[in-house]
Amino acid sequence: MIKIPCIIIYILIFFLKIYLENNIKKILFTILALGFSLIVLSGCQTREDSSDWLQGDWYSKDWNVTYTIIKQDENDWEIRDGEHPIAKCSQEYIDDKDSKEILLIDKKGIEFHITPIDKSHIKFQQVSKDGTLGTTDAVEFVKKQY
Q1: Angstrom distances, CA of residue 89 to CA of 46, 57, 72, 85
Q2: What is the arithmetic mean of pLDDT over 44-65?
Q3: Kind and range of the H or E run holding 88
């Protein structure tokens, strides 16, 4: 009599094992699919095509100057030295995936190359049109925190 319940228990364990193995595979697949979806969605949300971080006051120790960079609308920017406008620019995007450079171009053709170093530091370079003066070395600016 003892052997029959043991056989029944073994059969029940066998079917339970098959049931759990099939469901565990489904559960694991579902968890992996959800995890992958969350990674893709979070990657899309944190993608920084936005250059809003650039707005604000930036100080250069090398030049001893503070520039205020103002985003006026989606693609129009203004660079100011205190109350004096330096340039009104339109934003051009660099197509290189590896480059994080932002290119601002004013109506006179002067280019402002801005490359983020980290959240509070940028490299800033002014490049004038061919044949005109005004090209500078790349200078580091630090974002002022208030």
Answers
A1: 26, 17, 10, 11
A2: 80
A3: strand 84-93
Identify which of 107, 129, 112, 109 has the alpha carbon closest to the alpha carbon of residue 54.
Answer: 112
Phi, psi angle pair for 67, to nearest 5°: -100, 140
Q: How far apart are CA 85 and CA 13, in angstroms?
A: 80
Tell the burial category of 37 from Cβ atoms under 10 Å away from its Cβ (0-12, 13-18, 19+): exposed
Q: Whole-prediction pTM value?
A: 0.62
CB of 110 closer than 8 Å to CB of 124: no
> Whose CA is closest to 128, among 116, 115, 112?
112
74-111 tens-digit pLDDT: 789 999 998 899 999 988 766 566 668 889 999 888 99
Place of tokens 């630090």: 142
Angstrom distance (rounded) from CA 21 to CA 79: 63
User: Which pLDDT score is estimated for 123?
Assistant: 95
